[in-house]
Amino acid sequence: MAVDWRSYKPVLIPDIPNLNDIDVYIKNGGYESLKKVLSDDWTPVSVVDEVKAANIRGRGGAGFNAGLKWSFMPQPDGGPRYLACNGDESEPGTFKDRMIFEYNPHLFIEGALIAAYAMQCTTIYVYIRGEYINWINMMDKALQDAYSKGFIGNNILGSDFSVNFYTHSGAGAYICGEETSMLESLEGKRGYPRVKPPFPAQRGLWGRPTTINNIETLANVPLVINNGADWFKGIGAENHPGPILYGISGHVNRPGVYELPSGVPVLDLIDEVAGGVKNGKKLKAIIPGGSSTPVLRADQLDGVSMDSDSLREAGSMLGTAGLVVIDEDTDMIDLLWRIAHFYHHESCGQCTPCREGTGWLEKILLKIKNGDGEVKDLDLLLDLTTQMEGRTICALADAAAWPVRHTINRFRDEFEARCKKSVHAMA
Amino acid sequence: MPEVFIDGTRYEFEGQPKLLQYIMDLGLEVPFFCYHPSMSIPANCRQCMVKIGQPVKDRETGEYELDENGDRVIRWFPKLQTSCSIDVTDGMVVKTQESDELVQRAQKDNLEFILINHPLDCPICDQAGECPLQIQTYKYGPEGSRFEVKKVHKPKRVQLGPRVILDAERCINCTRCTRFTEEISKTHQLTITKRGDKNYPTTAPGETFNDPYSLNTVDICPVGALTSADFRFRARVWEMNQTPSIDITNGKGCNIDIWTRDNLVMRITPRHNPHVNDYWMPDEGREAYRLFNENRISRPSVMLDGNDQVLSSWNNAFETLAEQLDKFKAEEILVIGSPHSSVEENYLLGKFSNLLGIQNPVFTPHSEKGTGDGFLITDDQAPNTNGVRLLDFDEKDAASLKETIKEKNIGLILLLNDHLIDRGVLSADDLDSKFLVMFASNESETTRNAGLLFPITCIAEHAASYINVDGRIQRSFPAKETKYTNRRLNLEMSEGRLDRYGTSFDNWVSDENKIDCLTLWDLISLLGDKLGLELSYENGAREILSEISNKLPAFEDVSFEKMDDESGIQLDTEKIKVKS
Fold first, then answer.
1. Closest residue of A to B152, CA-based?
2. Among A78, A96, A106, B103, which residue's beta carbon has the most beta carbons within 10 A?
3. What residues of chain B lie within 8 A of the CB of A374, using their CB?
4. ipTM of the complex
5. Which residues of B touch A380 (CB under 8 A)?
6. In terms of CA atoms, which chain A residue is nearest residue B114?
7. What is the pLDDT of residue B580?
8. Which residues on chain A are in Cβ contact (under 8 Å) with B150?
9. What's the pLDDT tens digit per position in B123-148?
């Protein structure tokens, strides 16, 4: 059943002027859910259970139940425990978290504080990509305001709960959005993903229990506490409930971030929400959730909606819900080369298949783009994607391999047409 | 006991080993590059991929579920796993490249990736012949390359520091070198710079890689990216003979290999000994290879009236010594042992002086306060100070040695391989009008003051034992021939590839680099013949040590055989008398 998105009222970024001002936020019921969980009616365990029941699936791309993730934290032993909030959002096509930083930072701060309370963390870091310097400044201001109102610090609102909250700036590396290399970066080290196990919940920041959550994921938490898990589960698609910030970019008339329930039909998003394809062109393809998610042809989109089940069925993924719209004039070889260039540029260089594979992919694609490719190069590209996938420490090799494999498979004719006639005799 | 199945064979294990290490300990093989048993496990080369499964257990009964054939039902991991980083667990089933095509394929794919940006310049690369990348490519790699685009270019011939040169294009980013400076030498001098296929190890801008242990990175580099500034382009691995030995530049006694070609020592590398130096050694010890080649004393010399040393025959030298011994009373003779010489040499000198009725021999330790670093560099500058102590030589500092010479009216000094003038213990004036007989292997200011100079073998030419600062006795093997020894006849000497397989035309061995010197036991045996003393040891140091072992309680149960079996023997340090 199609989701009724037309009558939806935004809750993550509601239409309230100056909501980033802490007084406006409080006037509109802000920090009430924090007060609620700090009251005697709630315990850390009951918060975790409630969030688990709400099935907030991680909005950073992997889509893992946030409450379940929180429950992996070991029992407190008196030492430090960390919550690391991932605001690195460097996947091309993704620009949703900065809307939260800009328009409703306290919702995220409140969510992070509740999460820290639930997992009994002692310190919260919010890692924000360095390019977002303005948004880092906004967050610093918001954190200062929250400190001065007593929402962060020692004995928050007269309770036993104490926590500190810091921003940390990235330095321009995509890989630092990968959760374990973000931890390395937070520790002041080179952004290399860590081998798992041990998982961050066992050995995270400085060897201590750590949970990593996306900004948007945490922004949903106060809403769940205020309105209950059932309310949350009633929004949008069944297996992937809740509001979603859709970042729509590419060849549309009104690109931007739109808050709607999950499960909006892809074509509704393009035609109605984003005002249709620019200049009246025909739709050629979409990338549904950031550059690493497999591209879908326009003819694959009938009845497909923006939730994990529907997209998986169609042969792609929801990712970060950063929808890239591609019109009929787009050269897919150019597009794929640009994506491959990005992953080549951003590979950290730790694991062999990704370090060498990303460069090789880009170089072959450049050759094809320049008209020097042969059909056998396409098969080599497909071969290389299987050589890379699943053989590295983190998922970046997969992220680099998928778009190449699926774009070639789904637009094979276009690629072959660009290739030279093979000089090799057919067998 | 917990069990694991590797390629269909059942093995039992104890503790919590990592799979790759466990496989290697079994004597089996999985290829790898970044793993090193003494450092952290980054799992970044992705070469040691294996397929892993766990038997399925019934949740209620805890029993293994069985299929229709009665075999355990195995749940395979969805992805291949790096064996270096995975713990062996009970019931685990492992398929390596020996039994699984996907694993074979993955390892081959990975080598293809590693090689695309590797320069493939093995013919001019120093690592060739001892290169894990070369060896594993032959064994597990693809036959050709499908890489038809341009390779990445990176800095070459970069002098990272005084002793290490980087070729960044050969680097496969295993991070062994950076982990070494982080975890072992702790200087943190190396780091990886840049990203992706452009990255390579380097120092911080403006810094030099002058870590006192820097050359270890050359050893552990699995390709030819880091090479030794000194050894570069000097010899091929397969032309050299590799002989186990002991570092003599300080008191730690790091286990080393001496690499020789045509009886010249070309380089020294550390040899694994978990009780002493693990896989490492200080750079200083490697530079000592020159001592074995340069400034060697060949043929005896006697001093004529005008302070001129002239070469002499062995026979004449023995005659001269006999004359001098005749000239002086036993009380006027002083025998000085050396912490720089082996247990056997010192013992024999002591025994010789004993038979002549000379007073107890003395020695002066060679220690420089503050040079040690608590790791492998010690204050002690000599390899066998504890050995001389255990032989009950009288320990004397510089002042008391001078006093002894003066007060006791010493006229004749027998000095074993200790360059006392060079290291400031004695001055030439102290030896004025004394007759100095010196047994030494290298020329120095001290040897130039000798009235009679006997050339003896250095550690690279004899088998003998040394006791380190921690009281561990370890021994050397002869690595290079003297004029009187022969590699093919001496079973203690190592054979290189050319000795074993080469024709006489392949072998470059000449007589040029053989030193005219004797082991101290051969020399004293000949001297004994002259003086009518029974001092002959047909089996050299081996026989001397067994005599020591029978005589001195501190050396109980010590023998060459036991040292070989146990890579040295820890002596009871209580028995080492420390006289300060």
1. A359
2. A106
3. none
4. 0.94
5. 146
6. A352
7. 35
8. 363
9. 999 999 999 999 999 999 998 899 99
- pTM for the structure as a whole: 0.94
Across chain B, what does the average pLDDT equal? 94
List all residues 6 or more positions away from A5 whose beta carbon is below 8 Å from its beta carbon.
A260, A261, A264, A268
Q: Calculate ∠ Cα A203-B185-B40, nearest 5°.
A: 30
Helices marked H in B236-334 — which ranges? 283-287, 289-293, 314-327
B194 touches chain A (CB under 8 A): yes
Structurally, how many domains does chain B consist of? 3
**B415-458: pLDDT as tens digits:** 999 999 999 999 999 998 899 999 999 999 999 999 999 999 99
Q: Is some CB atom of chain A closer than 8 A to the CB atom of B77?
A: no
CA distance B108 to chain A (A): 10
* pLDDT digit string, tens, across residues B346-372: 999 999 999 999 989 999 999 999 999
Residue B486 counted as domain residue: no
pLDDT-based confidence at residue B572 (cuts at 50, 70, 90): confident
Residues of chain A positioned with their CB less than 8 A from the CB of B196: 344-349, 355, 358-359
- Any CB–CB contact under 8 A between A172 and chain B? no
**Does B242 lie at the interface with A, CB-CB under 8 angstroms?**
no
For residue A256, the SS3 value is strand
Pick the CATH number of A332-418 from 1.10.3720.10, 1.20.1440.230, 3.40.50.150, 1.25.40.10: 1.20.1440.230
Residue B46 near chain A (CB below 8 Å): yes
Tell which residue, B37, B47, B192, has the closest CA to residue B108. Answer: B47
Do residue B196 and residue A355 have CB atoms under 8 angstroms apart? yes
Q: Which residue has the tokens 């290879």?
A: B289
CA distance B80 to chain A (A): 7
CA distances from A364 to A332, A375, B148 (A): 15, 11, 9
- What is the rounded end-to-end Cα distance, in angstroms, of chain A? 51
Q: What is the CATH number of domain A22-233?
A: 3.40.50.11540
Convert the pLDDT of each residue in B469-490 to its tens digit. 999 999 999 999 999 998 888 8
Contact between B256 and B285 (Cβ < 8 Å): yes
